[in-house]
Design goal:
heterodimer; A: alpha/beta; Rossmann fold; six-stranded mixed sheet; 32 helices; B: mainly alpha; 10 helices; 2 strands; flat
C-alpha cells in the first residue's frame, strides 16, 4: 500500500530561476493489488510522483509511506525500494549489467543475498519474462521491447510487491508496447502485484482500477476509467484525449440521444455493443418518419441538408482536381537495396529492392514494424546514407554523385528521432541558426529564417534562452525549427511526435501542416497509424525492408488483415468499423478517426433504412465538432458559404474534405445543435481545444451566415430551457 | 549504421576458451603478449602461430571474425613491415631507384608483421572476443584486490569499469547518430576550413557530453532504485574458483612463454 499525505515537492532551481514546484499538496492511497494509472501532460509532475513513491525523491512537505514505512526514514529505504520496483522510460539508461543475466543479478546482489539464491532468482525472472533465450546477450543486441522486458525481469528478481512503470511504454512501438503490457498484466495476476503505471496512452489507462490525472503538480481528476472518461471536456482541457472507442460511443450516444453508459463503453467490446444497441433503437423507421421528434428535427436543420448536398459536390470537384493535376516527382527511388553490418560477422538487409516516387507538395507517411527499414530509407533522401545498390533521384539529381550532396542537403531537411538530443549551442536562436549559417546564407537571411522557423513552431519567445533550460517538448520544437530554418523544400521527419502527450502531438502536427500548405513536400515516419491516416495523402508500408504497399490511407487501412500481416497496429477506428461490419452491410471499411467513424456508422444506418436525407442531415449536424485539421484555414472564407480548405492535402476525398468543411464552421453549428436538440450530452465539450486555437468564433460565423443565425435562435432556446 | 566496431563486443559461446576464468585469460594474455613480441626466430614464431591456431580452433569463433580484429591496426602493421624492408641491411634482393631492399630486410619485415598480427589475434581472442567486459572488469578487480589494503576502492573501481564497458557500444551508436543528424544540418567534419570543422566537431561533442551526463544521472537513479549502495554488502556472484582447465591453460601459456625465452637463449 502506498500512501501520499499532503505531499509537496520542488526541484531546486538554478541561479537565475526559482525552484519549480513539481508536486503540490497531493494525497492518495494505492491499496494492495490494485492497478493505478497516472495521466497528465508532459511536465505535469507524473514522474516526480513516481520517484517520490520509492524514496528516490523525498517530499519537502507531507509524508509518503509504503506499507506503513516512511520513505524519508533511512532505516526503511532499502526495503521500500525492494518492495516497490521501478521500470523507467529510457530502455538504454536503466540497464546496468553487461549481459541480461548480469543485469537481473544486480538488484539481488545489492541485497547481499547468497550467490545461489541470486542465481535461482535470475533464472526464475528470465523464465517469467520470456528472456531465458537471451541470458548471455549484451544489452545493445536487444530490441527496445526486449530491453524493457529485461528491466521488468530485473525488478522481479527483487521479489517486489509493487511495480512502478514510469512511462515505460513511451519509447516502444505499438507491438512491443502491447507485449509489455500483456506481460505486466500476466505478472500482476500471477504475483498479486500492485501496478502503478504512468503513461500518455489513454488505452492503457482503461486497464486500471483507478485513474489519476495530474495537472501542474496537483490531482486534477480522479476516478475509475469510466468516471474519468465520462468527463470528456475536462480530460481534453487537461491536454489528453479520449480512447477512440469511447469517443465514438460518446458521439453515437449524442446523435441517437440514447443515454450514454460510461461503465459499459469503457471496454472496446462494450462500446461496440453499446453502439449496436443505440442504433437499433434509433433506426426504427417510425421514429424518424412519423414521430414528433422526427418532425422537430427536420424543422431545425433544413439548412444542413442543403449543405450536405453541396458538400458532396465540392468533394467530387476536389477529388477531380486532385486526380487531374500531377505534380512533379521530387524523390524517385529505384530498386534501392542496403545492408549494414549487424552483430559481428552478420549483415542485416535493411532495404531490399525499394522503389517509390514522392510528388511535390504531398504528405507521404511511412509506417512499418521496428526494423522494417523506415529510418534507413529516409536517410537515403539527403545522402546521409549513400545509395550503394539502386538509385535515388532527389529533385532530378542522382545522389550517387557525392559532389552535389551538400547542395541537396540544403533542399532536403532530415529530422532524426528524438532530435532534442542534438541541440548544442548556447542559445536557442544560435542553435536554430546553425543550419542556415553552415549553408552559407547571409546574416540577414539567417536572421529571417530563424525568426520564421521559430514562429512556426511557437518557440520565438525562448530564442534567448539556453536550449538546455527548456522542457522536453520545447526542445523538440527547437530542434525541428533548427531543421526548418534551412528552408528545405522536402522535409523528412522520423517520429516527430514520439513521446509527446496527445495535445502536444496534435499541436505539433498542426504546426507542421502549415508547411505543406506552402508547397513543401513532407515525409513522416511514424508508428501512429491514426495520425498517419489523418495527416497523410499517401502511406507507404514497409515490411522487412521491402515496400509492402503504397496508397491512400483508405487503401492501406481498409484491410485489417494486411495491416496485421505487416505487424502494424490496426487503428481503433478501423477495428470499430470491422466489429460492426456484419450489422450494417453498407458500412465503410475505413475511417480517419473517432468522428469520422461515427459519421460513417450513421451513414450506413440510414443507407439501410432508406432514410438518407433526414438522417444524414441530422447525423452530420450532430457530429459537427472536433478540432480543425489545420490551423491556417483562413483562406477558406473565400469559398463563399462553403469553406473548403484548399490548403488541405486531402487525397482521400470524401472523408477528409467533409471533415474540414464541418470543422471550419464547427462552432456555431455545433453549439446550436448541442443546445437545440434533445441530447443531454454535449459534444461541444470536445471542442475546447479548437476554441483554444486562438481564432475568434466570429470568424467561423462569417463563413456561414445561416448557421450563425440558426445558432442565435438556438441560444434563445437554451435560455428558455435553462430558465 | 555502417561498420560496427568490435570494441567492447564479445561473441557469446560455450567453448573452452569462453569458459576459462577471466583472471587466467588476463594473465595468459599478458604473458603471451610479451613472449610473442620478443620472439625473433622463425621457428619460435612458427610455434606461436601453431599455438594461436589451436586457440582459434578451441574458441570456435569463425576465422573471418578473428581476422577482423587486426583490421583497426592494419596500417600500423604495414608501416612496421615497410620500415623493416628499407632499414635492415644485408644481401641486396632488388633495387627501386636508390632504395635497396635486402633479403634480410624482407624476412625481418614479414616476421614483424606476423609477430604483431599474432599478438593482436591472441589478445583479442582471449579477452575481447570470448570474455564479456564485465568479466574482464571483474577479473581486474580481483587482480587488484590486494590494493584494498591500501584503501583503494577496488569494488567501486570494477563497477565503474564494467559500466563504462557496457556503455561503449551505446555511446558509439549515439555518436554515429549525432554525426548523421548534424551533417543533415550542414555540419562539416572532414572538409572545409579549420573553424568549420571545429564547429562540426563541437556540434557532436556537446550533445554527446550532455547526453552522457543525462545517462549517468538516469543510471544513478536506476541503480539507486535497485538498492545499490545500500546497507547490505554486495554479493559477489562469480565466486571465481579456478577449475582444472584453468590450471591446465595457465600451465600451457607459461610453457609456451618459457619455451620462447629459453629457445632463444639456447640458440644464442
Amino acid at each position: 500500500m502506498i500512501q501520499f499525505d499532503k505531499v509537496s515537492f520542488a526541484y531546486q532551481g538554478n541561479e537565475d530561476r526559482d525552484s519549480v514546484k513539481a508536486v503540490s499538496d497531493v494525497s492518495f492511497t494505492i491499496p494492495d493489488g490494485s492497478h493505478v494509472v497516472f495521466l497528465g501532460r508532459n511536465g505535469s509532475g507524473k514522474s516526480t510522483v513516481a520517484r517520490l513513491m520509492n524514496g528516490l525523491l523525498l517530499p519537502d512537505e507531507g509524508t509518503v509511506t509504503v506499507d506503513g514505512m516512511d520513505t524519508s526514514d533511512d532505516v526503511f529505504i532499502d526495503e521500500i525500494r525492494r518492495r516497490a520496483g521501478m521500470v523507467f522510460q529510457n530502455p538504454d539508461n536503466q540497464i546496468i549489467g553487461t549481459t541480461v543475466a548480469d543485469d537481473i543479478a544486480f538488484g539481488p546482489c545489492n541485497l547481499g543475498l547468497p550467490a545461489e539464491e541470486v542465481r535461482s532468482r535470475v533464472k526464475r525472472a528470465m523464465e517469467e519474462t520470456g528472456m531465458s533465450a537471451f541470458s548471455d546477450r549484451e544489452p545493445y543486441a536487444l530490441s527496445g521491447g526486449q530491453k524493457q522486458k529485461l528491466a521488468v525481469a530485473s525488478v522481479l528478481a527483487m521479489h517486489p510487491k509493487i511495480l512502478i512503470l514510469d512511462e515505460s511504454t513511451a519509447m516502444l512501438d505499438p507491438a512491443s508496447r502491447r507485449a509489455l503490457m500483456d506481460l505486466i498484466l500476466k505478472l500482476k495476476e500471477k504475483k498479486q502485484l500492485t501496478i502503478v503505471h504512468i503513461t500518455h496512452h489513454m488505452e492503457e489507462a482503461l486497464l486500471a482500477d483507478r485513474v489519476y490525472i495530474l495537472d501542474e503538480g496537483s490531482i486534477a481528476l480522479e476516478g475509475t476509467p469510466a468516471e474519468v472518461f465520462d468527463k470528456k471536456d475536462r480530460v481534453l482541457s487537461l491536454g489528453l484525449g479520449l480512447p477512440t472507442h469511447i469517443e465514438i460511443a460518446h458521439r453515437i450516444a449524442y446523435a441517437t440521444s440514447v443515454p450514454y453508459q460510461p461503465e459499459k463503453v469503457t471496454s472496446f467490446d462494450g462500446a461496440v455493443q453499446f453502439v449496436r444497441e443505440a442504433l437499433a433503437t434509433f433506426s426504427d423507421p417510425v421514429l424518424i418518419d412519423g414521430s414528433p421528434e422526427g418532425e422537430a428535427l427536420s424543422g431545425t436543420s433544413i439548412r444542413t441538408e442543403n449543405e450536405f448536398l453541396h458538400t458532396k459536390e465540392q468533394t467530387a470537384a476536389l477529388s477531380q482536381r486532385e486526380s487531374s493535376v500531377e505534380s512533379p516527382v521530387v524523390i524517385d527511388v529505384n530498386h534501392l537495396s542496403y545492408a549494414y553490418a549487424g552483430l559481428p560477422g552478420s549483415h542485416v538487409q535493411a532495404l531490399q529492392d525499394v522503389s517509390l516516387e514522392v510528388r511535390q507538395g504531398e504528405v507521404l507517411g511511412i509506417v512499418g514494424h521496428t526494423g522494417s527499414g523506415k529510418s534507413t530509407l529516409i536517410q537515403h533522401f539527403n545522402g546521409i546514407i549513400p545509395s550503394s545498390r539502386g538509385t535515388v533521384l532527389v529533385l532530378g539529381v542522382d545522389l550517387s554523385e557525392r559532389k552535389i550532396i551538400r547542395s541537396i542537403r540544403r533542399k532536403v531537411g532530415l529530422l532524426f528521432q528524438y532530435p532534442e538530443d542534438q541541440l548544442f549551442e548556447e542559445t536557442v536562436a544560435l542553435d536554430i541558426a546553425f543550419a542556415p549559417k553552415q549553408m552559407g546564407r547571409s546574416p540577414e537571411e539567417v536572421a529571417h529564417s530563424v525568426e520564421k522557423a521559430a514562429k512556426r513552431l511557437g518557440v520565438d519567445h525562448v530564442l534567448d534562452r539556453s536550449p538546455f533550460d527548456l522542457s522536453g517538448g520545447q526542445r523538440r520544437r527547437v530542434a525541428i525549427a533548427g531543421v526548418l530554418a534551412a528552408e528545405p523544400v522536402i522535409l523528412a521527419l522520423d517520429e516527430p511526435a514520439a513521446g509527446l502527450d496527445p495535445a502536444g502531438r496534435e499541436d505539433l502536427f498542426d504546426d507542421l501542416a502549415t508547411l505543406t500548405s506552402e508547397g513543401a513536400t513532407m515525409i513522416i515516419v511514424s508508428h501512429d497509424m491514426e495520425a498517419m491516416a489523418k495527416r497523410c495523402d499517401r502511406i507507404l508500408v514497409m515490411k522487412e525492408g521491402r515496400v509492402a504497399k503504397i496508397g491512400t490511407p483508405e487503401e492501406i487501412i481498409s484491410s485489417a488483415a494486411f495491416l496485421e500481416d505487416a505487424s502494424l497496429n490496426v487503428p481503433p477506428a478501423k477495428r470499430f468499423l470491422d466489429a460492426l461490419a456484419d450489422d450494417f452491410p453498407g458500412l465503410a471499411a475505413f475511417a480517419l478517426d473517432a468522428k469520422d467513424t461515427a459519421e460513417k456508422i450513421l451513414e450506413a444506418v440510414c443507407f439501410s433504412n432508406n432514410n438518407e436525407q433526414i438522417f444524414l442531415r441530422e447525423a452530420r449536424s450532430a457530429m459537427n465538432d472536433q478540432r480543425s485539421f489545420s490551423k491556417n484555414n483562413e483562406s477558406s472564407s473565400e469559398v463563399g458559404s462553403f469553406p473548403v480548405n484548399h490548403d488541405l492535402p486531402s487525397h482521400s476525398p470524401s472523408s477528409k474534405n467533409n471533415a474540414s468543411v464541418l470543422s471550419n464552421d464547427a462552432l456555431p453549428i455545433r453549439q446550436d445543435i448541442a443546445l437545440s436538440s434533445r441530447g443531454n450530452e454535449r459534444l461541444s465539450d470536445i471542442d475546447k481545444r479548437s476554441i483554444k486555437q486562438d481564432r475568434p468564433s466570429t470568424e467561423y460565423a462569417s463563413h456561414n451566415g445561416t448557421s450563425y443565425t440558426k445558432s442565435k435562435s438556438c441560444e434563445k432556446k437554451e435560455e428558455s430551457s435553462n430558465g | 549504421m555502417g561498420k560496427r566496431s568490435l570494441l567492447g563486443r564479445s561473441i557469446p559461446g560455450t567453448s573452452l576458451i569462453h569458459r576459462l576464468d577471466a583472471r587466467v585469460k588476463f594473465i595468459a594474455a599478458i604473458l603471451l603478449m610479451i613472449a610473442t613480441l620478443s620472439a625473433k626466430s622463425p621457428i619460435v614464431l612458427a610455434v606461436i602461430a601453431v599455438w594461436t591456431a589451436v586457440l582459434i580452433a578451441l574458441s570456435r569463433i569463425p576465422l573471418r571474425i578473428v581476422l577482423r580484429s587486426i583490421r583497426p591496426i592494419i596500417i600500423l602493421i604495414i608501416f612496421a613491415m615497410v620500415i623493416h624492408f628499407f632499414t635492415v641491411g644485408g644481401t641486396p634482393l632488388f633495387e627501386i631507384g636508390s632504395i635497396v631492399i635486402s633479403r634480410e630486410g624482407l624476412i625481418s619485415g614479414l616476421l614483424t608483421a606476423l609477430r604483431i598480427s599474432l599478438m593482436v589475434i591472441q589478445t583479442s581472442l582471449l579477452l575481447t572476443l570470448t570474455t564479456t567486459p564485465i568479466a574482464i572488469a571483474d577479473a581486474m578487480g580481483r587482480l587488484l584486490s590486494p590494493l584494498e589494503h591500501l584503501r583503494f576502492p577496488v569494488q567501486e573501481f570494477s563497477m565503474m569499469m564494467s559500466i563504462a564497458m557496457r556503455f561503449v557500444p551505446t555511446l558509439l551508436d549515439e555518436a554515429m547518430r549525432l554525426m548523421k543528424a548534424q551533417s543533415s544540418r550542414g555540419a562539416d567534419f572532414d572538409t572545409g576550413g579549420l573553424m568549420r570543422r571545429a564547429r562540426g566537431i563541437v556540434s557532436i561533442l556537446v550533445p554527446l557530453f550532455v547526453s552522457s551526463f543525462r545517462r549517468a544521472d538516469d543510471l544513478a537513479v536506476a541503480m539507486e532504485a535497485r538498492c545499490y549502495g545500500g546497507t547490505s554488502s554486495r554479493t559477489t556472484l562469480y565466486a571465481m574458483k579456478l577449475q582444472r582447465r584453468d590450471y591446465l591453460f595457465l600451465f600451457a601459456a607459461i610453457l609456451i612463454s618459457a619455451f620462447v625465452f629459453l629457445w632463444q637463449d639456447l640458440v644464442k
